[in-house]
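Incident log, structure service

09:12 report received: a user says their structure output differs between two submissions of the same chain.
09:20 pulled the input from the user's history:
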Amino acid sequence: MKFKPTTPRKSGANQQGFTLAEALAALAFLAIVLPVAVGGLRIANTAGVVAERKTVAARVAERVMSELIVTRQWKQSSSGVAEEGNQQFRWILQNQSWDKDPFKLLTLKIIFAVQGQDHDVNISTVIDSTQQ
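09:34 re-ran on a clean worker, output below:
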């Protein structure tokens, strides 16, 4: 009868794979990093939406201000709602005296909501109140 010589078992250091401690450490690292990364993405998304809406709000503000000046409705402070696409923008017009006598300072504030928070855009112009 012939016997085959036995080879010694390889030590644990030469075996490939991860130990339980390494796998747990990697999971703990992911548990810390993943919420931070998702929070960063949420903040970046909100900032992008706010920037886009501010651009639209500025366009709406210019349109509303032009309409108020052309129709001479700027003489009293007023407010209303303007629509652009499927979005609504509240606006408030403030009429104030200017340093120079015949001029008035018109400030139009556009208010819009993004993810439950109000944001605004303000535009101002000076107009000669003696012109009819």
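09:41 both user submissions now match this output. Likely a transient worker issue. Closing.
09:42 reviewer note: The chain is about 40% helix and 30% strand. Residues 32-128 form a domain with the Pantoate--beta-alanine Ligase; Chain: A,domain 2 fold (CATH 3.30.1300.30).
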